[in-house]
Amino acid sequence: NTELSDRIQGEALFIRSLFYYNLAVIFGNIPLQLDEVSGPDIEINQVSASTIYAQIAEDLELAESLLPTSYSGADVGRATSGAAATLLGLVELTAGNNTEAAAALRRVVDSEEYDLVDNYADLWGISNENNVESIFEIQYKAGGTGTGSSYTEFYTPFGTSGGVGGGNAPQLITDDVLSIYDNTDDRFWGGTFDSTLVDDSYTYYVKKYESTPFDNFDADNNFVVFRYADVLLMLAEAIGASPEAYALINEVRERSGITTPVENETGTFEEKLLLERRREFAVEAKRWPDLLRFDVAEEVMAAHLQELGESVTESDIRL
User: Fold this and answer.
1) Of 38, 69, 104, 283, which has the fewest CB atoms closer than 10 Å, so is most exposed?
2) Residue 101 burial (10 A CB sphere; 0-12, 13-18, 19+)
3) Per-residue model confidence as pLDDT tens digits over 92-148
4) Are 147 and 141 a contacting pair, CB within 8 Å?
5) How far apart are CA 184 and CA 188, in angstroms?
6) What's the number of CA atoms in the CB half-sphere (13 Å) around residue 49?
């Protein structure tokens, strides 16, 4: 079955590319192993992150050509050509190849397979998974089978294992995050955060991952890796300061009720785009790669750690 064979190859290339992208962003130089391993006696050498990104780009171009545009039924959640093109756009941005990134991301837009959901809050919750904005989600399933997610336990005060402020690796929301939203932004109360009474005081938690777990660390919450808002903001990044790029950013902002055009706000194009990404993707594991890609990791982390009496230098950060 050639169609099934192509799909399996495309899925494998996409998943391997996603793993290698995360490894390269976190560690920089890493081993690159592309051939089947039949025993332990192999030579393992690190290669540069740029070599990793070049290999990923090659793999994703093939994966995109092999994968279908969408699925139905039980296959919903598998990698699609849109997922491959989205990851390709991100990888090309990370490698500094903005022209190639824009081309890949425009293919996602032009496919007309995706759109922004009308209300930001409708992105979240088990009943809203794999929606029209979703491009790729890690699919979790609760029920004691070892396939459930732990996000409710770590990011909310619900569940039975401690939760926010309860001692179980509490993921408390810091003031600097709360301060980036104003009262016209639906993303704050409309899906990202909420508050509840914990130990006689109100504590903010991440509403995106709220659910009722089947058991400890066993909930149905998917993890959204890519969604259409990310494509729009990455395309704006690839294009650079221009009316088209500002229009893409405003499209994402307007969904959250912000009517002031982003170009009217203070700061450089890059500063405004980075802030918008921080607001849109809070607690979606995009902040650190963004800081590295925008070349502001040392500056941002130094300011953040100063309050704790710590310091950070470029040698502490893998750039």
Assistant:
1) 38
2) buried
3) 999 999 999 999 999 999 999 999 999 999 999 999 999 999 999 999 999 999 999
4) yes
5) 9
6) 18
